[in-house]
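# step 3/5: fold
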Amino acid sequence: MGLFGRAINELISCPGRWREADLHQRVCFWCTVFVDTVQISENGLFSLVRVCYARAQLSTPEIGQRSDSSAS
């Protein structure tokens, strides 16, 4: 679950550019709504995390290739 949570954290960081979702997927993520939520760490500590919700475009480019094409 740690790796999954880490991938989600990468997504909600919302850079508006391509990010690695896992070894085979790339997600182009744009923020539209921000929600502050409380996250509990493994140590039981609470922290405030700003979660980003948006439409995400999923694609699975071939291994070794970038899908930087912006053609519609």
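# step 4/5: annotate
Confidence is low (pLDDT under 50) at residues 14-28.
# step 5/5: archive (pending)
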